Amino acid sequence: MAHRCLLLWGRGACRPRGLPPPLVPGGRAGPTERLCLQTLYRYATTQAKTSRNSLLTDVIAAYQRFCSRPPKGFEKYFPNGKNGKKASEPKEVMGEKKEPKPAAAPRASGGGVGGGGKRGGKKDDSHWWSRFQKGDVPWDDKEFRMYFLWTALFWGGVMLYFLFRSSGREITWKDFVNNYLSKGVVDRLEVVNKRFVRVTFTPGKTPVDGQYVWFNIGSVDTFERNLETLQQELGIEGENRVPVVYIAESDGSFLLSMLPTALIIAFLLYTIRRGPAGIGRSGRGMGGLFSVGETTAKVLKDEIDVKFKDVAGCEEAKLEIMEFVNFLKNPKQYQDLGAKIPKGAILTGPPGTGKTLLAKATAGEANVPFITVSGSEFLEMFVGVGPARVRDLFALARKNAPCILFIDEIDAVGRKRGRGNFGGQSEQENTLNQLLVEMDGFNTTTNVVILAGTNRPDILDPALLRPGRFDRQIFIGPPDIKGRASIFKVHLRPLKLDSTLEKEKLARKLASLTPGFSGADVANVCNEAALIAARHLSDSINQKHFEQAIERVIGGLEKKTQVLQPEEKKTVAYHEAGHAVAGWYLEHADPLLRPRSCWLVSGARRPAPEGQEVGAESC
């Protein structure tokens, strides 16, 4: 039965619904199609005598053998299509073994043998649309900018049309009666939105200015009664009466009134998508409502001009931190040997000793981005902001890898847990827990080095200082006399010194006059000397200016207006003379340079001996 139907189909007598029309020999077809149909015709003729299969099975088998695609509507009857295997693939010939081919992915159109899906398929989202759904406005995408420009031009044109279109000329009811209706130049009246009436003139009797005229009405019923009475008084009867037409027009006020509401809804949807209910920014953590969960870290890439040559007074710390620079420059050298670089280091020491400067110089020497953030910036009044900012910070660091992440004043967020919270977990503890998780989650191939600075290492949580997080603790103390001399050399470079001064000798002398000074104090002395020279209208900076700067840093401003009473002067004189006499008779006492007193509290400044930081006992 099936093969008889195929014979009839080949002769053109019948054709199943959904199958293509037959191409019998001699029809309008090319040589390839004609040969294919001839083969199909002979195959159906042969199988019609021997096959006992059902009609549908024989039709599908014959069509699948000679056709590359199934007929429309019959895709589900071709099981091979589920595996993405085309029917037109040649079979094994004479026992040859062929290499298995990977299953081809279904085409987007879904029209192939293995498609089985909807025609046309599902179009993948474009790159900018995916980013926009995640809350990131893709201003850098050319297609998005084009869509945004055309949308802005469209709505701008709509607003300009409603704002600057011709509004006609307003007249009163009396002007309408005397100048237009009584003269017979009115063709019809248009009541627009039941608010005003537009006057349409008879062809050829339009006003000179070309503008239409209109007048306001209070009520439609009152307007109709007044118009009816007026036409009766003017003798306008029958077909000569002025017709009244009611129309509705949009003046743009509805769109303008809806604009604020639409903007508010769009803003709320945008913030919700960036919040915990939505998806965060691409490559970053969740932003939270109003972006309070975003990190406040600053990324410095091209702005870093600090090198190790600009850092002085901490040579041991520079040698220890140089290993991080070598790792960032050549990580393969360590990975080939199986070595794991320390994930981070914590820089400890008194304030002003150069912890932040050393971290910035490390990034500048390695030529990698430098991400800096303060520990106090993680804590806010909202619950959950701290952990969200920590996640966002480390996502930013991974995005900019290789880089250096520097957390200044980490003691603000890394204090020991379990104190002062009455058994509950405070927001600071949640932030610290998230910080511990993020630091321990770093692997050795991330190429992110974490540096932190603090002057209170004793209050830090032990879990923060264990190996695997901050592997090393680098102490940066106040510089010695050689360190201060090298720091003075660095800060004396940009200053315009007197021609009689030599930088080497001046640096050593100033270092001996500033015992216990930190690097920040030395920089302050050099800056104060330049300010004093400018205040005195000097062309260059001499040694006297540096001495005055040291006096100001140590004792503050000189109080020239402070007047002492005679008794007070006598008391201070005895006190300062005692300093001088005692220093003269003591064997190991330093020579007195200048007494300094404030009322009855006095002090004395003495130079530090060369190479000596701790003085011997004087008595």
From TrEMBL:
Question: Which regions span the lipid bilayer?
Answer: 147-164, 254-272
Q: Which SUPFAM superfamilies match?
A: FtsH protease domain-like (SSF140990), P-loop containing nucleoside triphosphate hydrolases (SSF52540)
For bias type Basic and acidic residues, the affected ranges are 86-101
Give the start-end ranges of region Disordered: 78-127
Output the InterPro entries linked to this UniProt entry.
Answer: AAA+_ATPase, AAA_lid_3, ATP-dep_Zn_Metalloprotease, ATPase_AAA_core, ATPase_AAA_CS, P-loop_NTPase, Pept_M41_FtsH_extracell, Peptidase_M41
Compartment(s):
Mitochondrion
Protein name as annotated: AFG3-like protein 2
Q: What is its main location?
A: mitochondrion
Q: Which organism is it from?
A: Sus scrofa
GO BP annotations, alphabetical order = protein maturation; proteolysis
**Similarity comment:** Belongs to the AAA ATPase family.
GO MF terms held by the record:
ATP binding; ATP hydrolysis activity; ATP-dependent peptidase activity; metalloendopeptidase activity; zinc ion binding
Domain of life of the organism in this record? Eukaryota
Q: Which PANTHER family match?
A: AFG3-LIKE PROTEIN 2, ATP-DEPENDENT PROTEASE
This protein's UniProt keywords: ATP-binding, Hydrolase, Membrane, Metal-binding, Metalloprotease, Mitochondrion, Nucleotide-binding, Protease, Transmembrane, Transmembrane helix, Zinc
What segments bear the compositional bias annotation Gly residues?
A: 109-118
